[in-house]
Design goal:
Elements (H helix, E strand, L loop, with lengths): L4 H27 L4 H23 L8 H29 L4 H17 L10 H33 L1
Helix pairs in contact: 1-2, 2-4, 2-5, 3-4, 4-5
């Protein structure tokens, strides 16, 4: 703020807007805490942001990429702009249908795109860390789906 009033004020406004959106998202997730689909949908991006920050801080320095990591890096460099449209399509598939199984499938695709299409992929230098990064959202979504299926199954057995 002291060095450049205009950009400092703009930063403060954007920071307040970001804080308000985070509070709103937290409130919505809290209100729907009994619905695993909404809970997982809200926690996947947050967990990926936290994990990305931790991995960026660690920043391993082994520059020998394996064949899978190299091919994914090349794929990401060619199709990086398509990731945006893929995320929009998976979000439409998540929000529009009423069938929960289709919504879970959309959430799995969303997690896959987040895991494979993040900018951290450009800096990946350790394959084990990349696999953790790419698989974590899929594991979170699959675990949420599995818990919901077992709850539904238990409710059906209890009502019989």
């Amino acid at each position: 703020m002291q060095m450049d009033w205009y950009y400092g004020m703009q930063t403060v406004i954007w920071a307040l807007l970001l804080l308000a959106l985070l509070i709103l998202a937290g409130y919505i997730v809290w209100q729907n805490r009994n619905d695993l689909l909404i809970l997982v949908f809200g926690l996947v991006p947050l967990s990926m942001c936290i994990l990305g920050s931790i991995l960026s801080a660690l920043h391993p320095t082994n520059y020998s990429l394996g064949a899978i990591a190299r091919s994914l890096l090349v794929l990401h460099s060619y199709v990086g702009n398509m990731m945006f449209y893929g995320l929009m399509a998976t979000m439409a598939l998540f929000f529009l249908p009423a069938n929960r199984q289709i919504r879970w499938l959309a959430l799995i695709l969303y997690g896959l795109l987040i895991g494979l299409g993040h900018n951290y992929l450009n800096d990946v230098v350790n394959e084990r860390i990349y696999y953790l990064w790419a698989i974590l959202p899929l594991l979170m979504v699959f675990f949420g789906w599995w818990v919901e299926q077992s709850r539904t199954q238990n409710l059906k057995l209890a009502s019989s």
